[in-house]
Structure formats: structure tokens, C-alpha cells
Design brief:
- By secondary structure, the protein is mostly helical.
- It is built from nine helices and no strands.
- The protein folds into two domains: 51 residues, Homeodomain-like (Arc Repressor Mutant, subunit A, Orthogonal Bundle), CATH 1.10.10.60; 127 residues.
- Helices cover 76% and strands 0% of the residues.
- The longest helix is centred in the N-terminal third of the chain and has 26 residues.
Length: 200
């Protein structure tokens, strides 16, 4: 059913519909006709603002990255100290793993970025920012491989949740969070000398 939407709100209505479709059904349903139907507007409105499907996917990616950035900034603003930040970041990580809408959106954007260099660039930049936050939470320098491993682990747990329906990923996030700070501290060399690692 078509609804009358004021012109200034049409683009936002279309974008919200596209975000919802990607989150609910994945990339295969993110087509201009499906978005128009979900938004309750004519397809010509969709193609006016987003002439190609790649334009629509790019806008969805920007919205996803923007909202994740806002959420992360709010974590830092809410926390009074690093000790306050840790449980907030753990809760954020749990949502990344168990919220199937987020996982499906991320998966769709990653698949789409394989075919779109501009989108890939956006996603690489967003992942770099995410890794910097993870590195800070782990107490390691930005660019440390441990942050990359943690980010890849969280994404893998999210994909496992999506595929297997296994919501135990949240428990694994808690386990990782317990171990990660210890690992980060154990691997940091003490001032002026290298710490030897002993086998366990």
C-alpha cells in the first residue's frame, strides 16, 4: 500500500526500509522493488534517491557504520574510567554476537563490498575504527594483532549464531573478556626488559 510521505522524508523512509530489509532478510531482499514496497512508496522514489542498487547499499553501509560509531562513542561518554568502560564494551560485544539483525546486516554489507570498491573502502575504515576500540579495551596498542584476532573472533561467533542458532556465543564473549585482559597484560614487556613467556 502506497502512503503519502512528505518529500523531505521520502529519502529517509526509503533508507529505513532498506536497513530493515537487510537486517531481516539479508542482501537477497535488498532490491529496489522490495524497498519501495516496504517503504510504501513508488519505486520511482527509490530510484530517484538511489539510482542503482549499489547506491542504496552504500547508503545502508554509511548508516550502519554511523550508528555503530555513535553507539561506541556513547560507551566512552558514559564510562567514567576504563574500569567502567570494560563492562559496557563486553555488553556491546555480546550484542554484536547475539543480535541476528546486526549479524545479518554486517554479513550482507561484507558480501556487497566484495563487488564494490567504494563500499569496501568504507567497510575497511569502519573495521579499523572497531579494532582501535577493541585494542583500547584490551589495553594493547592500536594495530596490535590481538585486536584483529578479537574482532575476527566476535564476527565468527556472530556468524556461528546466525548459521547454527547457537546463542552460546554470548557466554563465549564473557569467557574471552575474562581472558583477554590477562593475555594483554602478560604479553606486554615490562619497562626496559623483555618478559619471557613460560609454557603452561
Amino acid at each position: 500500500m502506497l502512503v503519502e510521505v512528505p518529500n523531505q522524508d521520502v529519502k529517509e523512509t526509503v533508507l529505513r526500509a532498506a536497513v530493515e530489509l537487510l537486517a531481516e532478510h539479508g542482501l537477497r531482499r535488498l532490491t529496489q522493488p522490495q524497498v519501495a514496497e516496504r517503504a510504501g512508496v513508488r519505486q520511482s522514489h527509490v530510484t530517484y534517491y538511489f539510482p542503482r542498487r549499489s547506491d542504496l547499499i552504500g547508503a545502508v553501509a554509511r548508516r550502519y557504520i554511523e550508528s555503530a560509531g555513535v553507539e561506541i562513542m556513547q560507551l566512552f561518554q558514559t564510562a567514567g574510567s576504563d574500569d567502567d568502560l570494560t563492562p559496557l564494551l563486553i555488553a556491546f560485544a555480546r550484542r554484536q554476537v547475539t543480535d541476528l539483525r546486526r549479524v545479518r546486516t554486517l554479513l550482507g554489507l561484507l558480501v556487497a563490498s566484495e563487488e564494490d570498491a567504494a563500499l569496501r573502502e568504507q567497510m575497511v575504515e569502519a573495521v579499523s575504527g572497531l579494532r582501535a576500540v577493541i585494542a583500547h579495551a584490551m589495553g594493547v596498542p592500536a594495530g596490535d594483532p590481538a585486536a584483529t584476532i578479537m574482532q575476527a573472533t566476535l564476527w565468527g561467533l556472530g556468524l556461528n549464531t546466525l548459521l547454527m542458532g547457537d546463542l552460546g556465543g554470548a557466554d563465549l564473549v564473557d569467557l574471552i573478556a575474562q581472558k583477554a585482559p590477562r593475555v594483554a597484560k602478560a604479553e606486554k614487556p615490562s619497562a626496559g626488559r623483555t618478559k619471557k613467556r613460560t609454557p603452561r
